[in-house]
What does this fold into?
Amino acid sequence: MIKIYDKGIIDYYIKKTNYRDYFKHDFVKYTELLYFDKNEYLIKEGELSPYILFMVKGKVVYSSISETGNTIIFGSTNAFKVFGEASAIWNEIPDNSVKALIPTYCLAINLNNYRDLLMNDIDFLRHMCKILSDRLKNANKSYAFYLSTNAENRLASFILQNQQDNIFNNSLISTSEIIGVSYRHLQRVISSFCEKGILKKDKRKYLILEKEKLKSYVNSTFVYYD
It folds into this structure.
């Protein structure tokens, strides 16, 4: 994690997003800008977060470790999102992780310094309640999705949601993390789709040749990016 002190860049991201709407009082003067490199954790399961984070640029995946030691992927997002709300409100250790898939930037407020101010801001608390409610619903939906689908279902759904003009060029390493399978297993599944004439590899991207056949593997409307 790297702190960025350029006030112009901080102001740019504040104006670009609805960051100010999260607070009744002025928290801009307490706001920092943090940079997370690829594969760096924004929030790590079992470790108390010193910040509440507002992702303004990047892409992350959020997950948890089950009792059996398996990683359960709750989803991924490249939209403006808030992370660390449990630490902010209750000073609780998080039970899931948020990891950057690409270089990621977050507006941040230091909880050690400003938790009391946040806890007395009505608009902030109202937004956090809504976020926690939505996150619980999404987590339950995601868990059910992973229990009821296999790698082919997940990959087909992911490709269809992330293709542009029938071209899929997402990183396969990132894709494997998002859909919750090993990179080696993902390669086997995508090779199978190519052998069946559904996809065709073209250098570092894949062309969708048979979209309807690809759709036939999808048995859920689960959305990977919210």
Summary: The chain has two domains: 2-147, 150-215. DSSP finds eight helices and twelve strands in the chain. The first strand starts at residue 2 and ends at 4.
